[in-house]
Each structure stands twice: as C-alpha cells, then as structure tokens.
Design brief:
Layout lengths: L10 E7 L8 E7 L17 H14 L2 E7 L1 H7 L1 H14 L7 E5 L11 E4 L7 H22 L7 H4 L5 H10 L21
Parallel strand pairs: 1-4, 4-5
Antiparallel strand pairs: 1-2, 2-3
Helix pairs in contact: 1-4, 2-3
Catalytic activity: Endonucleolytic cleavage to 5'-phosphomonoester
Pfam families: RNase_HII
Protein name: Ribonuclease HII
C-alpha cells in the first residue's frame, strides 16, 4: 500500500513521463493531495491498466488540493538534454500549482532545487508515495493524449499505440519515412545510424 509523506506541511509529489521516447514531449505533473486522501488502486502509472488510469485521472483532478501539468517539447529537449528537460518539466508543473508547496518529493534520483523549497528524491517513488503516484498518472495520461492527437498527423508511426517509445514498429516507420518535427533530433532514432539527415 502506498504511503503518505509524514510531514505536517503541504507536500507536492512530482513525476515525469516520456523520458525514453524518440518523439513527443517529456511531460511532468505535480500534485498536492489532501492529508486524508485514500485510493486502493492508485500506484505507479506503468502498473495500472488504461481504464483505471483514466478513472484515476478524474479522481485526482477532482480531489487534489491542486495539480499542475507541463510539457517540454522536442526543440527544448534537444537544446538542454533529456535529463534537464525532465527536471524543467517538473519545475514548470510545480509552478502551475495554485499554492506553493512547503516540501517536494520527486520520483527518481535527480532534481534541481525549485526556488528555496526543500526536496527529497525517492527512487521508485511512484510506487511508494501517493502524491508521486498521482503525479505519474497525470503526467502519463496527459502525454498519452497528446501523442494520440499528433498520431492523426503522422499515422505511419502508430504513436496512438506506442506513444513515441522506441518500439520495433516505430523504428521501422522512421527507417521507411524518415523523421518528423516531433522527433527528438538529439536521440539515436535508429540503432544503426551514424548520422540521420533531417
């Protein structure tokens, strides 16, 4: 069972989705949950079925004290690298909160201080703390919705299904049709590539 973070102050959990993708943004969410929030199925978004993720998204948006979601797009990822882009997305998501957190818990082991708010990195935090799990649900569902939208523009890569991750089908599409403006140019799009002309 996931835990609450035992502090009396307002704690924001934050997580990102799409870090390992070849196309699309990296998306982060930040969530402050009420101290009495409970949900028996809330967990790391990767462990939850699609229909449950969508149901949890509605519950979190209705019951959270506040939440924020932010994309960092391909051009910026290519400029600052994916790690910095992931942290930037989390900072932007926190900035969207309607009240300032007094403490931040972050999924993973890398973060940069946000203003002067104390923070803690938690490895696999999305499977340990409710607010990080809630952030993982919002980040994933929001990013998935974006990838399904741009799938309509470039259906040959099947982003509706693979969400921009480096599946065999996605890479076959890149090999056949080349890259798009939604692809991350700083990523190795094909395993055998030395240089890919854009």
């Amino acid at each position: 069972m996931l835990k609450r973070f035992n502090l009396s102050c307002q704690v924001a959990g934050t997580d990102e989705a799409g870090r390992g993708c070849l196309a699309g943004p990296v998306t982060a969410a930040a969530v402050i949950l009420p101290k009495n929030f409970k949900n028996s199925i809330l967990n790391d978004s990767k462990q939850i079925k699609l229909k449950d993720r969508l149901s949890l998204k509605e519950i979190i948006q209705q019951e959270a004290i506040t939440y924020g979601v932010a994309h960092v797009f391909m051009e910026e990822i290519d400029k600052v690298n994916i790690l910095n882009a992931s942290i930037l997305a989390m900072h932007r998501a926190i900035a969207f909160l309607s009240c300032d957190p007094e403490y931040i818990i972050v999924d993973g082991n890398k973060f940069k201080p946000y203003l002067k708010v104390p923070h803690e990195c938690v490895i696999k935090g999305d499977g340990k703390y409710l607010s990080i799990a809630a952030a993982s649900i919002l980040a994933k569902t929001c990013r998935d919705a974006y990838m399904e939208e741009i799938h309509e523009e470039f259906p040959m890569y099947n982003w509706k299904q693979n969400k921009g991750y480096p599946t065999r089908e996605h890479r076959a599409g890149i090999q056949k049709f080349g890259s798009t403006p939604y692809h991350r140019k700083s990523f190795r799009l094909l395993p055998e590539q030395v240089k890919l002309d854009f």
